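Data availability (excerpt). The following record was deposited with the supplementary files.
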Amino acid sequence: MADRFKVYEKVDRFIQKSKIPMAYILFIYATSVQYIPDSLVSKNFKEISLLPVAITLGIIVLRIFFDIYKKIHEPDDVLPFFNKWKDVTDTGEFSKIFKKRLHDDKIIDIKIIGISLRFHWSYIRNLLDDYILQDKNVEFRVTIAILDPDAYDTLKFVDDPFRDKFEMNARATVQDVVNFMKSYHSKERATKCTIALHRYQFMPSFYGISLDDKFLFLGNTYWGETGFRAAGQSYNLYREDDDFSGSERIKVFNSWIDYIKENDIEGGNKTA
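Predicted structure:
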């Protein structure tokens, strides 16, 4: 998805990237303009131009000093960590980001990679239900990647009961997504919602949910003594502009979404 920035975001990014080069240019101009021959630039123009140059340079220098002060005095940034998905929902961290994204942009892209999605889908479904019932003029684009229920017999789990539990949950999720979209289409809504359901046939090394390619709740699967551990486990929250390679994590997550789309034997079950 292409980045969508408001005007103030574009201006702020431009200032952040250009303030140092701009300060150098203005400083060089302010110190050298007096040496330009009057035959090329009039003395009156030199004097008039120095005031806005000095003011602009002063603002940039103050901004640089403020950034330095803020960096020194702000607490050390930490990578947000949640012990389990329930912690993510109980703290309201996901819904807070979700609502902030809706405030900034009326189109929300949600991407999910999971095993049976028994935690993720039920939570996202309730969020979507809430906004669809409000009938607001917003749009949700949801991409779901789930472990193909038909592939469970060929994959290694710790034991049969454990595998059967995952498979049952996965089939229930697939059916619930279909039922959700049938219910959505049964009524005329201002809120737009599309869901693309894709299946993959390998044991994933991670799971997670991303919002607008800007925020990513990411966890890792692993083999524990009691079985294959997945979405009930811990999460880290990565942001596009954080100090923990958030942009790179989001890029990797999206690459797996793209891979799953391209290799979905059913071509993706687009339910809307």
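Summary of structural features: The beta strands are 81-82, 107-113, 139-147, 192-200, 206-211, 215-220, 222-224, 227-229, 235-239, 269-270.
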